[in-house]
## 1
Amino acid sequence: MIVILLGAPGVGKGTQAAAAAETQGWTHLSTGEVLRNEVAQGTELGLTAQSYMDRGDLVPDEVILGMVSARLAEVSAGETLLLDGFPRTLAQASALEAQTAPGAISAALYFTASDDTLVNRLHGRGRKDDDRSVIEHRLAVYRETTAPLIDFYQSKGLLREINAERSIDAIQADTVEAVTVCLQNMELQG
Ligand code: AMP
């Protein structure tokens, strides 16, 4: 079963996915994390991705899809996979749908917070792409290219909104609850 975590940079998707995966035995796949590892290891993929990431641009779809396709193909029946930072474009969302079994995507959790909160959280993180001008650009890219996925998953009846303006613990409780409901529904449909 796949659950997508949607929301702007800085909203806390990664923190939430990591904590839920850890306590619940779910799998967490962060494309940003995979890319940062590739950059750190100086691989060809990392070298390709780095300039996009440093500017706050999206890494091209074909690079991302090449990176995640093998992983998506091996999602097992009993596995609960939290996708964090993927898909980020409509092309990626279509590819995800094409590469997974019908019904495998159970929900898209949409984490919401005000722009002020996002910018404050991004400044607090100290990552290389969290510099002020890069932050502005990443938020603009999000609004332009990734935000349309909200309507895409809404129209499929998969969108679940989570207010991420609260404490990490409160958001975590809702995150675990939303995924647990998906698992229960899946069992009922058996
Ligand atoms: P994140 O850790 O999710 O904030 O991702 C960090 C950076 O990695 C982004 O700003 C993009 O440059 C790149 N990235 C991560 N995931 C994707 C994706 N699905 N599509 C394109 N670029 C991505």
Note: Residues 9, 31-32, 35, 52-53, 56-59, 64, 85-86, 88, 92, 129, 138 surround adenosine monophosphate (CB under 6 Å).
## 2
Amino acid sequence: MKRPGIVLIGFMGAGKTTIGRCLARALGAEFLDTDELIEEDTGKKIAEIFALEGEESFREMETRLLKKLGKRKQPFVLSAGGGMPVRKENRELLRSLGTVVYLEASKETIVKRVSGDCTRPLLQGEDLEKKVTDLMSLRERIYRETAHRIVQTDEKTQEELASVLADCGREV
Ligand code: S3P
């Protein structure tokens, strides 16, 4: 059975939310963002959830949300939080929602985009570049293995990316 979603995965700052919104508009599909849905559900910011309840509790929320999204019938574009595919259970859930696209970006691009950001708890404190390098080396293979398609984003404009990705939409 064809599934209704395009699921964007990738590192923090890869552009999942920005490109996802643009793609959803182009496809006439609903745009969903897992962090936003969790914030709406709990009435708390992601940083507060990490600080008050811990990362594990946030990861539980992510898995519960993916299970809920599996019930959707209408087309959607989903921007999945960067850590979502790390749990094996989530990888299967993500793939069951539709075409999973890994938005790949270089470490340099990521560091540029997330520097000064204070909303992402895993990137706070000293030595941002080391934090990005370490997390990326843990996750890169996971992103690749989870994805049906991989799209390199460094050299492309938002419009170019939305057009490449719209092809994924037509294949869904
Ligand atoms: C995280 C990525 C964030 C958010 C949380 C944890 C991660 O989402 O879910 O801060 O572990 O990579 P974005 O990828 O949308 O920034």
Note: The two ends are 10 Å apart (CA to CA).
